[in-house]
Design a protein that fits this description.
2 domains; Aspartate Aminotransferase, domain 2; alpha/beta; single chain; three-stranded antiparallel sheet; Aspartate Aminotransferase, domain 1; 41% helix
Length: 399
C-alpha cells in the first residue's frame, strides 16, 4: 500500500510551491497585449519589483530562466576579452563563470569550496593585486542552490571598496530573493539577477535583471550587446512589447502580479523573518537527528546557511534511498544533490536538499519533518530521536 495519494508536495529548491491565488490569476483567456489591463498591470509591477529588490535603480524583464539571466546580465556588463572575477561557493558560481568564458571573457575564479562563504580578505587581496584595474566585473552568488551557502554580500562590497577597485559588482540572487534579506542599494550591488520560480512563487519562465546607473553607464558600447538581451529598451519601454522584445509572457504576468502583491501585503520584513524561522525549524530537527547518525549540514555555521534551501549529507547512498522512499510512499519529493559527484554516483547519492522557499508555512515544514522521521525509521537509517519535537519547540518559541 502507498500513502502517496493526494496532493504531491515538492520540497525542492525551485520551482517552489505556487499559491492557489497565483494559479487562479493565471487561469484566464489570452488578454489584449496592446491596450488595457495587461499594459497597466505590467507598468505597475516595475516599482514593486524594485521594492522587493531594495533598489531605486533600473529593472529589465526577460522571458527566460536563470541560465538566460547569466547571459543577459553579462552581455550588458562586458565586452569580449574583458576580465571577470568570479567568487565561487558552489555549482552555480561555476555556471555563471562558464557562461562568461563562453562569451569570450577572460575569467578568473576565486574558489572558496563547497562548504564556506566568500572570504572578503581574499577577495580584497585579489583586487589590490589588480593595480591596472583590468577586472571589469566581480560576480558572486548570494545563495548557491547546490551548496546552500549564504554569502555576506555587504562584506563583499566592503572588500571591493577597501581595495579601491572600480569594478561593477554583480550578484546572483535567484535562490534567495523573497526568502533571505536582500537590499540591493544598501549593500552596494550594481547588478542583481533573480527568476520567477523560487521566492517569487510564480512558474519558471520569467527573469529579472536589476541594475544601477553606474552599471548602465559602464555597459554602454559593449560589443556583446544583442537586440534581445539589451537591457536599455527593456528598462525604459514606451510600449508593452518593448519590455520583452516581442510578445509578453501574458499569463506569467498575471501570476507574478498576484505573487508580488502577496509578498508586499505580508511585508518584506515578515517574509524574511518567516523564512528564517521555518529554516531554523528544519535546523533544529537535523541537529537532533544528527546526534544519532550520519546526517550533517553541508554548511556547518548557521550564520552562512540559506533560509531558502538546506543541503544535507547522509552518506553511503542513503540520501537517494530517503528521497525515493518519500516519493513512493508519502508523496513528497526532496531535491537531488548538485555538484557533489556526478549525478547517479555513490557520492551524489549521499546528499540531498530540502527547499523551503516562497509559499510555505509551519504545517508544511512540520509535515516534511515528520515524513523524514518516518522514512528514517522505515529505512532503518540511524538517527537521533526527537527531531519533530525539537522543531515544534523551536516554532513554539517564535510564535
Amino acid at each position: 500500500m502507498s500513502l502517496a495519494n493526494g496532493r504531491h508536495y515538492l520540497a525542492i529548491p525551485g520551482p517552489s510551491v505556487i499559491p492557489d491565488p497565483v494559479l487562479q490569476a493565471m487561469h484566464r483567456p489570452a488578454p489584449n497585449i496592446y491596450t488595457g489591463e495587461l499594459v497597466e498591470l505590467t507598468h505597475g509591477l516595475i516599482p514593486d519589483l524594485k521594492t522587493i529588490a531594495g533598489t531605486s535603480g533600473h529593472v529589465a524583464l526577460y522571458i527566460t530562466n536563470g541560465h538566460g539571466l547569466w547571459e543577459a546580465s553579462l552581455t550588458n556588463m562586458i565586452s569580449r576579452g574583458d576580465k571577470v572575477l568570479v567568487c565561487v561557493t558552489g555549482n552555480f558560481g561555476h555556471g555563471w563563470a562558464d557562461v562568461a568564458a563562453r562569451l569570450g571573457a577572460n575569467v578568473e575564479i576565486l574558489d572558496f569550496g563547497k562548504q564556506a562563504p566568500v572570504d572578503p580578505a581574499r577577495l580584497e587581496a585579489a583586487l589590490r593585486a589588480d593595480t591596472k584595474h583590468e577586472i571589469k566585473v566581480v560576480l558572486a552568488t548570494h545563495v548557491d542552490t547546490a551548496t546552500s551557502v549564504r554569502n555576506d554580500i555587504a562584506s563583499i562590497r566592503e572588500a571591493i571598496d577597501a581595495a579601491g577597485h572600480p569594478a561593477v559588482f554583480g550578484v546572483d540572487s535567484i535562490a534567495s530573493l523573497g526568502c533571505d534579506r536582500f537590499v540591493m542599494d544598501a549593500w552596494g550591488v550594481d547588478v542583481m539577477i533573480a527568476a520567477s520560480q523560487k521566492g517569487l512563487m510564480t512558474p519558471p519562465g520569467m527573469g529579472f535583471v536589476w541594475f544601477s546607473e553606474k552599471a548602465r553607464q559602464e555597459g554602454q558600447g559593449n560589443d556583446l550587446r544583442t537586440p534581445y538581451w539589451d537591457w536599455e529598451t527593456r528598462a525604459k519601454p514606451v510600449h508593452l512589447y518593448e519590455y520583452f522584445d516581442g510578445t509578453p509572457p501574458t499569463h506569467h504576468l498575471y501570476g507574478l502580479r498576484q505573487a508580488v502583491t502577496m509578498i508586499l501585503e505580508e511585508g518584506l520584513e515578515n517574509v524574511w523573518e518567516r523564512h528564517e524561522t521555518l529554516a531554523r525549524a528544519y535546523w533544529a530537527a537535523v541537529e537532533t537527528w544528527g546526534q544519532g547518525g550520519d546526517l550533517r549540514f553541508n554548511i556547518a555555521d548557521p550564520a552562512y546557511r540559506s533560509h531558502a534551501v538546506s543541503t544535507l549529507s547522509l552518506g553511503a547512498g542513503d540520501g537517494t534511498r530517503l528521497r525515493t522512499w518519500l516519493t513512493e510512499h508519502l508523496g513528497i519529493t526532496l531535491g537531488i544533490s548538485l555538484g557533489f559527484g556526478d549525478i547517479g554516483s555513490s557520492e551524489a547519492a549521499g546528499y540531498f536538499r530540502i527547499g523551503h522557499m516562497g509559499h510555505i508555512n509551519a504545517h508544511m515544514v512540520l509535515g516534511i519533518i515528520g515524513a523524514m522521521e518516518t522514512a528514517f525509521t522505515a529505512l532503518e537509517i540511524p538517527h537521533g530521536e526527537g527531531g519533530s519535537v525539537a522543531a515544534a519547540k523551536l516554532l513554539a518559541s517564535r510564535v
